[in-house]
Design a protein that fits this description.
The structure is a single chain. The protein contains two helices and no strands. By secondary structure, it is mainly alpha-helical. The chain has one domain. The longest helix is centred in the N-terminal third of the chain and has 27 residues. The radius of gyration is 15 Å and the shape is elongated. The two termini are 15 Å apart.
């Protein structure tokens, strides 16, 4: 089964979590712009979250065994 061609699976597994990661990054940047150093926590967690999603995409698209 090719996971990358099914649009509903692609939406649930990759696009919606990516939007959540981007909102974490955006919130962190907003806090940093207001001179709150706790914003770096949101930026780093959001970045790690998006990296995990990208790694999962490549693992599923190359049909590698998990």
């Amino acid at each position: 089964m090719s996971y990358t061609t099914d649009s509903s699976f692609l939406m649930m597994l990759f696009i919606l979590p990516s939007l959540f990661g981007l909102s974490l990054i955006g919130d962190g940047v907003s806090k940093i712009m207001n001179y709150d150093n706790h914003g770096w926590v949101g930026v780093s967690i959001g970045s790690i979250f998006i990296m995990i999603i990208i790694i999962a995409y490549f693992m599923l698209s190359t049909n590698s065994p998990i």
